[in-house]
Amino acid sequence: MRQVGIVGVGHTKFGKWEGTFLELITQAALQAMDDAGAKTGKDNVIDQVFVASMGAGMLNRISGSASALVDTLNIRPAMAECIENGPASGASAIKLGYMAIASGVCDCVLVVGGEQMRVVSGWEATDFVATMLHPTGEYPYGLTLPSFAGMFTRLRFEKYGETSEDLARISVKNHDNATHNPCAHIQRKVKLERISDPRYVDATSPMVADPLRQFDMCPVSDGAAAVLLVAKDKQEELGFGHKTFARIAGIASATDTHYVADRADPTELLAVRTAAERAYQMAGMGPEDIDCAELHDAFLILELAESEECGLFPKGEAHLAVRRGETEIGGRIPINTSGGLKAKGHPLGATGVSQVVELVRQVRGEAEGRQVEGARTGLAVNFGGFGNNVVATIVTTK
Amino acid sequence: MRQVGIVGVGHTKFGKWEGTFLELITQAALQAMDDAGAKTGKDNVIDQVFVASMGAGMLNRISGSASALVDTLNIRPAMAECIENGPASGASAIKLGYMAIASGVCDCVLVVGGEQMRVVSGWEATDFVATMLHPTGEYPYGLTLPSFAGMFTRLRFEKYGETSEDLARISVKNHDNATHNPCAHIQRKVKLERISDPRYVDATSPMVADPLRQFDMCPVSDGAAAVLLVAKDKQEELGFGHKTFARIAGIASATDTHYVADRADPTELLAVRTAAERAYQMAGMGPEDIDCAELHDAFLILELAESEECGLFPKGEAHLAVRRGETEIGGRIPINTSGGLKAKGHPLGATGVSQVVELVRQVRGEAEGRQVEGARTGLAVNFGGFGNNVVATIVTTK
Q1: 112-131 in B: which are within 8 Å (CB) of A?
Q2: Beta-carbon contacts of residue A210 (< 8 Å; ≥ 6 apart)
Q3: Nearest CB partner across the interface for A135, out of B21, B83, B104
């Protein structure tokens, strides 16, 4: 199969975006194009643009934003589509970009993920997010993502002996990492005792969905991220020869039951496991080849569960590795060096692209202040619904 | 490049759907799978599902519907994404299905387009549709699709001498064709004098956007359509050897300025021309190879304009061909044998898939009552925004 890789990355500051959705995705797109040295107008070489967003329609009342972006970027008549797969929209769009180039139809594809979700807050934000649950079996009954995550956490705690303090440790780690990421939403350290000591915790990190507290889950963020994909055999000809080729060695997705209640064992994340297995197989790699990982820690329990489903740790042992500091920068397998969804923020459609941007920065050796020494290969897991649709991506310079 | 073709088609009755959105897309999907003989559960061979919809989020408050569909169809862990490109979402999804197979990542892809838009009506429907206009430069100012179509019609009338009666002729033709299509929304003939005679017309076909009247534009419909794509080299092995392979010889899209006001000549539909040229080039074909065409007649003037931009007629002469009956079934180049968007209906995300379903029925010789004799090759044009993003598809059994 044709080799496909990334030669440009862009990433807005996550947090509150004061402009329009179109301006948001344009900023990330232009950064990625500038990074790669991509030109516009008659010199444009981008064949296809994918915009990933879950809420452009529901929250921002926009359809066809990919076409508007092409026009704004002055790269007409490039092809353009919008991709939606809940919070995994971003990685899905990269997967489709990969296919577009591997097929030979395109040589160069721009993928932009963006979400402007802080136009809603409180129950409206919770309700918006809940639209990714089953449209007839879950959402209409008022089920929410935190409620599933709380149940999932409780079941895992009972099964594997994880504790709330383990989650707090991950929180501390991801907040630490985020202080070195200028694009992170929350660039502030937290102290373990402040979010786990029973004397303070009800005030500092109130209960949301028992046993999950506020600091066990991600904030609501606006933001956008972009990657420019190119075929290896066209990199030089299209003018990107000077850039590191961060090869997409493996990219795959998988679905699990949409009804969470239908799962034989609700503590298993089958779609994560299957997507990761497929990505490893495509890459001809295994967990032992991964130098750093960006995992979808919308709820911190997911960082633990995903790291196990991806084979980075044996089942039920990830929290022990966390206690030993193995997932910190400098540890055996650093996880969420970007700050993760927890501290970097989680603009839904942007997240999958943002994760891959972080991997590219790591394998390029450009992750200033949070660089994993000698990182050559990274894994990203982008998690849709409550695990009903998951995308795994492996980026490498090997 | 790997050959990709269609071995199964499905199509719900367009009109008012009383069930849920998920039931709607499921019905079309199952029809396409049954048509091809595709199995489920352990015997599933579908690698990827694409669901095309413009309003699943905005109108039905659903995200990730493709994952829900995979679960409902019992074809887990098939990959799944939703595709949005305004009213061209359907053909966009087929394009991505083509790429998925041509890349070698997938061998079999199910594409379903669906829209349940009759949950809104009147100004709410107009406003929903208008979200496909420029998100900052057009939509916020209250511009609507009929207003652009009215302007476009007026300019063309002045330039080429087309008349309201020419549009009425197309209306009569498409309504005639729809009476032979059991899936059409409106299966009723109209008489030319009823919708063009000044004595009746204000009552029978009231003015909407001068010179466009009600019978010059499509109704608001619910509906879904589906196609099952497979690689030629896997057709036999996957169990579809008994079905006609309706090959996708060419499929391509193109964008034009999103701001209609930015177009040098607003009577030109550059994206249609470019998409068609690209599709012809990919197919190694030209307009002379086309036996029948499904054109995007959301407004009847578009059927004329698109037929010219695709090279079926010289510029400014399509209405003369209509007057001579050349676009009727039995004519030189029958257009919209399905009834077109005008009479078959236009559930936005379904339309592009529905057009290709009609081409497959024609090239298979299964278009009962409306069959174009000896049809081997068909062209579809699916039009997004006011021509800002257009997909052209060529299906053939040659």
Answers
A1: 131
A2: A150, A154
A3: B21
| Tokens coding A307 | 């790291």
Which residues are within 8 A (CB) of A321 and not within 5 positions of it... i.e. 6 or more apart? A307, A313, A327, A332, A333
Residues of A in contact with B140 (CB under 8 A): none
SS (H, E, C) B324-386: CCCCCCCCCCCECCCCHHHHHCCCHHHHHHHHHHHHHHHHHCCCCCCCCCCCCEEEEEEEECC
> What 3-state DSSP class applies to A145?
helix
Residue A317 pLDDT more than 90? yes
Q: Minimal Cα–Cα distance from A366 to chain B, Å?
A: 31
Q: Which residues pair with B8 in a beta bridge?
A: B228
- Which residues are CB-neighbours of B305 under 8 A, at least 6 positions away? B152, B156, B267, B269, B272, B318
Count each helix (H run) and each strand (E run) in chain A, helices first: 13, 11
Domain A1-398 has what CATH class?
alpha beta
**A254 strand-pairing partners:** A390
Strands of B3-89 (E only): list them.
4-11, 48-52, 79-84
Q: What is the DSSP letter of A254?
A: E
- What whole-number distance in Å separates Cα of residue A345 and Cα of residue A354? 10
Contacts for A359 with CB less than 8 Å, ≥ 6 apart: A246, A292, A294, A378, A379, A380, A393, A395
Q: What tens digit of pLDDT does each residue of A196-237 get?
A: 999 999 999 999 999 999 999 999 999 999 999 999 999 999
Length of chain A equals: 398
With contact defined as beta carbons under 8 Å apart, do A244 and A22 qualify? no
- A43-80 pLDDT, tens digit per residue, is 999 999 999 999 999 999 999 999 999 999 999 999 99
* Mean per-residue pLDDT, A254-283: 97
Mean pLDDT of A109-124: 96
Tokens 């589509």 -> residue: A81
- Give the confidence band of A1 by pLDDT, cuts at 50, 70, 90: confident
pLDDT of residue A125: 94
Task: Name the 3-class secondary structure at B97.
Answer: helix
pLDDT, residue B270, reads 98
Cα separation, A132 vs A149, in Å, equals 14
This complex has an ipTM of: 0.98
In the predicted model, is pLDDT for residue A112 greater than 90?
yes
Report DSSP state, residue A212. E
Low-confidence ranges of chain B (pLDDT < 50): none
pLDDT of residue B1: 81
Query: What is the per-residue pLDDT for B394?
Result: 98
Sign of CA dihedral A46, A48, A51, A52: negative
Whether chain A has a CB inside 8 Å of the CB on B254: the answer is: yes
Q: Are B273 and B309 in contact (CB under 8 A)?
A: yes
Most B-contacting residue of A79, A257, A274 (CB-CB within 10 A), to test interface: A79
What is the distance in angstroms between the CA of the first residue and the CA of the last residue of chain B?
Answer: 17
What residue ranges do the domains of chain A occupy? Answer: 1-398
